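sry for the spam today, last one i promise. struct tokens for design, 437 residues
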């Protein structure tokens, strides 16, 4: 493990060369595979995403997808938890899993000398998970402890409340980690059924990078994924609603309430997406964004405020977050609305648009500076449904967005009248003007 960490710490930049070398690889039937060969250091990195996010959780059993993901490295085949973990550690293999709303994402990093064993273990975990009772109990307890801890965290409370309000109680509105009642209801049979339907080749996106040639890459990928079921799960139902305009307060005894705010947004394939991305950077995505200037620098209402475009597979949204002193929360929300209103009405300046384009183009290659970073970035593009040549033409596409396009996107997608605002914390009552009885 120390040797792997040392090598990863000295990985050189791959940005330009790796981008040019990325290509498709016909290795796993039914899956999309992007591959970049680089022999700078003896490291191989994989990022793979399955259609196995919380949006697929069975009715009444929220948290199933995350529960299954948490058991991925808890034993497989003839290896129980301790034996499986020992096999990873003995070969310096880093295996992690990130559950999400659309997908479950797996990251695997290994020295190239151990690549066959790493992918054998991954294949064993995917095709033959054990779901031993003791492992199930341990992971369930950890999830329940996290849920209990989140109840005292204003940011976690605000996030769960926001998603439930914005999307309704189902689809994207369900909590990724479920709730105590739903987790208790999830059985070993439920987990096995979920895995058979969602840890599959249909809809699987794979990005593989590093010190491995194409033939060896195809062989290890087939070993890890080739035996999985070929079918893709049915498309999940669309959210029953998008947005719940207004202010929603969830009382908590905290001195610094958390605030989440958002608007209906764009899916990644929308022709306006890049214009909205530039507009978002100017409003709340950049270091010198307008919201930060207004709330932090001019008024001292917060240490940080930011916004981002969130393109899920089925729907998109703009999501912002901040926090403020209890007595200043209403003022902060008013400032957010006012800043957004002026932004939508007047639009960004030419200089702001030029600076945003320069940053978005200049910062993008930083994501490709390691094999792990490259595989993660490639998989993110895969999940967003972008073509392989997007890497080459991204800068040109951003440069081609006109100032009028950005201003139109600001008017269309940044309307503060549609804001859903969630506050986790106690805030003073709104003062009303005095009038004679």
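last one done:
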């Amino acid at each position: 493990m120390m040797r792997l960490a040392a090598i990863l710490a000295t990985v050189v930049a791959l940005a330009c060369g790796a981008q040019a070398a990325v290509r498709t690889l016909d290795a796993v039937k039914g899956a999309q595979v992007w591959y970049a060969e680089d022999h700078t250091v003896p490291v191989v990195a994989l990022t793979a995403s399955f259609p196995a996010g919380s949006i697929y959780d069975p009715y009444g059993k929220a948290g199933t997808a995350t529960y299954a993901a948490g058991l991925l490295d808890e034993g497989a085949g003839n290896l129980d938890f301790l034996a499986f973990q020992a096999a990873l550690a003995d070969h310096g293999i880093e295996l992690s899993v990130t559950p999400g709303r659309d997908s479950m994402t797996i990251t695997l990093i290994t020295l190239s000398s151990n690549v066959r064993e790493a992918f054998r273990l991954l294949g064993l975990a995917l095709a033959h998970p054990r779901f031993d009772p003791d492992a199930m109990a341990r992971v369930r307890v950890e999830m329940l402890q996290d849920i209990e801890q989140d109840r005292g965290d204003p940011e976690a409370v605000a996030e769960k409340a926001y998603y439930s309000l914005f999307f309704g109680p189902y689809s994207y509105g369900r909590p990724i980690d479920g709730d105590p009642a739903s987790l208790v209801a999830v059985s070993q049979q439920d987990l096995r059924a979920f895995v058979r339907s969602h840890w599959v080749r249909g809809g699987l996106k794979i990005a593989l990078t590093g010190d491995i040639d194409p033939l060896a890459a195809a062989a290890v990928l087939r070993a890890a994924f080739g035996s999985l079921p070929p079918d893709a799960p049915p498309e999940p139902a669309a959210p029953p609603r998008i947005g719940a305009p207004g202010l929603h307060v969830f009382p908590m005894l905290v001195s610094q309430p958390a605030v989440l705010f958002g608007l209906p947004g764009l899916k990644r394939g929308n022709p306006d997406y890049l214009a909205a991305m530039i507009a978002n950077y100017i409003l709340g995505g950049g270091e010198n964004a307008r919201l930060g200037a207004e709330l932090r620098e001019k008024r001292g209402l917060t240490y940080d405020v930011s916004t981002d475009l969130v393109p899920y597979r089925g729907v998109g949204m703009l999501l912002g977050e901040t926090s403020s002193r209890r007595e200043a929360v209403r003022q902060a929300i008013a400032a957010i609305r006012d800043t957004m209103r002026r932004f939508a009405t007047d639009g960004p300046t030419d200089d702001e648009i030029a600076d945003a384009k320069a940053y978005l183009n200049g910062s993008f290659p930083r994501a490709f500076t390691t094999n792990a970073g490259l595989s993660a970035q490639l998989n993110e593009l895969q999940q967003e449904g972008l073509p392989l040549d997007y890497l080459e033409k991204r800068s040109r596409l951003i440069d081609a967005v006109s100032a009028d396009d950005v201003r139109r996107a600001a008017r269309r997608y940044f309307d503060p009248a549609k804001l859903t605002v969630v506050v986790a914390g106690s805030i003073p009552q709104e003062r009303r003007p005095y009038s004679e009885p």
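Residues 2-225 form a domain with the Cytochrome Bc1 Complex; Chain A, domain 1 fold (CATH 3.30.830.10). ok im logging off now
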